[in-house]
Design goal:
- The chain has helices at about 25-35, 85-105, 145-155, 175-185, 200-215, 230-245, 270-275, 285-300; strands spanning about 15-20, 40-45, 55, 75-80, 115-120, 130, 160-165, 170, 200, 220-225, 265-270.
- By secondary structure, the protein is of the alpha/beta class.
- The protein has a domain at about 10-175 and about 200-230 and about 265-280: 3-Layer(aba) Sandwich (Rossmann fold).
- The chain has a seven-stranded parallel sheet, with helices on both faces. Strands 6-11 form a two-stranded parallel ribbon.
Length: about 300
């Protein structure tokens, strides 16, 4: 987790609303509550939140449900995720949903010290192995990712200090699809030049968001990824070694196998998050997947 903070800006208790308590938001709520902050988790339906997180039922697509938010909020994290990969779902969550929440904060006279918007590295269209960072042009090939950029722009014009965090591929407990593909033999090595992949463990997503939310002087944009943008083949080979499996070459690929997809070949730099003082729990895929493998071995 991040190093202890001494700045008075970060001293609990903050009053924090997490809009979207899914895979990352639920863990973020647990982390913030454990640090002594008062946390509300906004979701449409009840969910298994930490006992220290107060559920706040509301629908980001329905402004009427946002008229009475918890008062005197110090921080807001917008961690909602689209439930479908289509234009309407992305627009509803990443653009219009954020607009509804920001409008509600303004209408209620709220003055949060920071609003954090969870975005994605999919906004980068680079696909030839280039390094990207916060200063790289964000020109996504996928039209869906343009809704993320629209949300980022909304926050940039809001009357509150705002920070955007573009997370790369999120993995962690319960997300073991790649492990199972290697174990089952569905994974295949890729032919040709290296295809770089980027990831960040769920626990580092939560730790980083908590760190930036309560950090005085946080910058407007961060790229959240681990320290090893590794070639896809390297990840598969390492997992195969740990599992005692063999991988078939790409020429034997079958439908559904884990081959590189267009638009997923770039290298994400995390220099800015490291410079902010955050220290990764899982600096590379080896530590992260190693912990997942240990958890699977220990499961009954």
């Amino acid at each position: 987790m991040a190093e202890p903070q001494t700045d008075p800006f970060a001293r609990p208790p903050w009053r924090v609303l997490i809009a979207g308590c899914g895979y990352v938001g639920t863990e973020l709520g647990r982390v913030l509550a454990a640090a002594g902050h008062q946390v509300w988790g906004l979701r449409r339906r009840s969910a298994a939140l930490s006992p220290a997180v107060t559920p706040w039922p509301a629908d980001l697509a329905d402004p009427a449900t946002l008229r009475d938010l918890p008062p005197r909020l110090d921080g807001v994290v917008y961690a909602a995720a689209a439930d479908r990969s289509d234009d309407a779902a992305y627009a509803a969550i990443y653009h219009h949903g954020l607009a509804h929440l920001l409008d509600a904060l303004v209408a209620q006279g709220q003055r949060p010290r920071r609003v954090v918007f969870v975005s994605s590295t999919s906004v980068y269209g680079q696909e030839h192995g280039e390094w990207v960072d916060e200063d790289s042009p964000a020109e996504p090939e996928r039209a869906l990712s343009r809704h993320l950029l629209a949300g980022e722009a909304l926050l940039g014009h809001a009357p509150f200090p705002g920070t955007v965090v573009r997370l790369s591929g999120i993995y962690g407990p319960g997300r073991t699809r790649l492990i199972e593909q290697v174990r089952s033999g569905a994974a295949r090595l890729q032919e040709g030049p290296p295809a770089f992949t980027n990831r960040i463990h769920r626990d580092d997503c939560a730790g980083l968001l908590a760190h930036l939310l309560t950090r005085a002087g946080a910058q407007p944009l961060y790229l959240g990824s681990d320290s090893d943008p590794a070639p896809h083949n390297d990840v598969l080979l390492w997992l195969a070694t740990q599992l005692g499996c063999e991988l078939a070459p790409a020429s034997d690929a079958t439908p559904g196998s884990t081959l590189h997809r267009s638009g997923q070949n770039k290298r994400c730099s995390n220099r800015r998050i490291l410079a902010s003082g955050y220290r990764l729990l899982y600096p590379t895929f080896r530590e992260g997947y190693g912990a997942l493998l240990q958890g699977l071995d220990a499961a009954p």
